[in-house]
Design goal:
By secondary structure, the chain is mainly alpha-helical. The protein folds into two domains: 1-97, no CATH class; 102-214. Helices cover 46% and strands 5% of the residues. The protein has nine helices and two strands; from the N terminus they run H-E-E-H-H-H-H-H-H-H-H. The protein has helices at 20-29, 63-66, 71-81, 87-94, 106-113, 118-127, 137-148, 150-168, 179-195; strands spanning 41-45, 48-52. A two-stranded antiparallel sheet has the order 1-2. The longest helix is centred in the last third of the chain and has 19 residues, at 150-168. The chain is globular, with a radius of gyration of 17 Å.
């Protein structure tokens, strides 16, 4: 089977077309892999549809290769590896991008918010406390992304609730106490700012502030 880490890799579609040159450079330094990226999901960023992999399977890039990348190229690299099949690798690379207000980084973070590793969910909640700051770049970027992708965010909300119900009820008897509840509140408030109207929540009734509305 042909390796997928090369300039024509489908992974380039995870980023805006204006970053095509940077994406090619990143793909050139990523080790070859024989497993195709799995289950890409589509989101809209600034009117452009991006196709982001649910999982990638590449080995990590040696640090001497990373050192030769530009700051933007490193950010692209961290975004891609936040989709890694190993949760520890996802968490490591998330830490390098989660504080960014760049709109094309946002879907990589939101996707992790809707996954099952509560330690990663907690990291996101803690890193995105700036979402509570009206007028901040972070709040605007997340709000605009959610408004542009309402069905995707609805699905993310359902996943947060489902993973709590399935795996974490023992540790968090109430959804209100679950890290995902606080994070969803902040994300909905950011969306409400951008939309100019309340943004609906899909959490269990009465489990979040204002019954799931911001």
């Amino acid at each position: 089977m042909e390796p997928f880490s090369h300039p024509d890799s489908p992974l380039a579609a995870a980023f805006p077309a204006e970053f095509a040159g940077d994406a090619r450079r990143v793909l050139e330094v990523m080790p070859n892999v024989r497993l195709r990226p799995s289950e890409p999901f589509a989101v809209v960023v600034r009117g452009e549809t991006l196709s982001i992999p649910s999982r990638i399977h590449h080995d990590e890039v040696p640090q001497d290769r990373v050192a030769h990348l530009s700051p933007r190229q490193r950010q692209l690299l961290h975004c891609l590896y936040s989709r890694h099949h190993d949760g520890r690798v996802r968490q490591l690379h998330l830490a390098r991008i989660v504080g960014s207000g760049d709109d094309w980084v946002v879907p990589f973070v939101v996707q992790l918010a809707g996954e099952y590793v509560v330690e990663i969910l907690t990291d996101i909640r803690d890193a995105l406390r700036g979402l509570d700051d009206p007028g901040s770049r972070l709040r605007r970027a997340y709000g605009e992304f959610i408004v542009a992708n309402p069905a995707y965010f609805d699905r993310t909300q359902r996943r947060v609730v489902s993973y709590w119900s399935c795996y974490y009820r023992g540790a968090y008897a109430s959804f209100r106490g679950y890290p995902g509840s606080t994070l969803l509140d902040a994300l909905r408030c950011a969306a409400a700012d951008s939309a100019g109207r309340p943004w609906p929540g899909l959490a269990p009734k009465g489990a979040t502030r204002l019954d799931g509305y911001c």
